[in-house]
């Protein structure tokens, strides 16, 4: 009797998660479907899960200049990979310092990091610092350095690193290991779940960013994918407004909604492929780091 009840509960839980999974997948299918629908069909029939007439006009418009898309993809990949590694390395070093109970200024350092969550210098001082003092305008570093240290990610890492027993560090010190050796040979291997979880969040930050490009980048050679798509969408909106006020121009022939969805597919595709490989580390790292901090 107990076994049948247990099986019934398991079936109910599985059914609930299947329904939730379907609810999450349907919007993605809608995005793909709309990106393959003509603008005329969207205006006449609305959004459909299965397009009436399949067309790739939106993708043709985006890839009108394929080399620019490829170049922007390369820039985004470099920024994401290098920026994630640099940010994760520096954030882990800072979080490890804050988590050490034998560090005299641990509380002061933690307060300074937490303070930046509540207050920051603002846009104008940041822009002046990046452009006038660091001279990073129109350089790849302007897309990397501003996101190098994120206080929230540092606090997440600190919560996880605080669970590592101090006895391990003391044992390594007795065996003659230096602080740097202890950090790389003991702390880093034990922190893989947290590093994978926070690293994925940092990766999303770099990949989805277009704001820094809008502020600091004018050269098309170092323009990341998100900002390029943003400019394409802005151009299409401008053409649509001009066509609406012109005589003899059919607005239905200009892809607007389908183009938005096509850009979502192009921009989110790599992250949708990457996320499943880090999912188990992501869940474990976030839950463990949130227990103690």
Short description:
This protein has 293 residues and is mainly α. It has helices at 2-35, 39-45, 57-62, 66-99, 106-118, 123-133, 151-161, 166-174, 179-190, 192-208, 211-216, 225-244, 257-291.
Q: Can you put this structure into words, describing what you see?
A:
The protein has 293 residues and is mainly α. Helix content is 73%, strand content 0%. The protein has 13 helices and no strands. Residues 288-293 have low confidence and may be disordered.
List the helices and strands and how they pair.
Layout: H1 2-35, H2 39-45, H3 57-62, H4 66-99, H5 106-118, H6 123-133, H7 151-161, H8 166-174, H9 179-190, H10 192-208, H11 211-216, H12 225-244, H13 257-291
Helix pairs in contact: 1-13, 4-7, 4-10, 5-7, 7-10, 7-13, 8-9, 10-13, 12-13
Q: Give the class from helix and strand content and strand pairing.
A: mainly alpha
Q: Could you give the count of β-strands?
A: 0
Give start-end ranges of low-pLDDT stretches.
Answer: 288-293
Question: Beta-strand level of the residues, as a percent range?
Answer: under 5%
Shape: flat
Radius of gyration: 24 Å
Q: Treating each run of at least 4 consecutive H or I residues as one helix, how many helices?
A: 13
Cα-to-Cα separation, first versus last residue: 44 Å
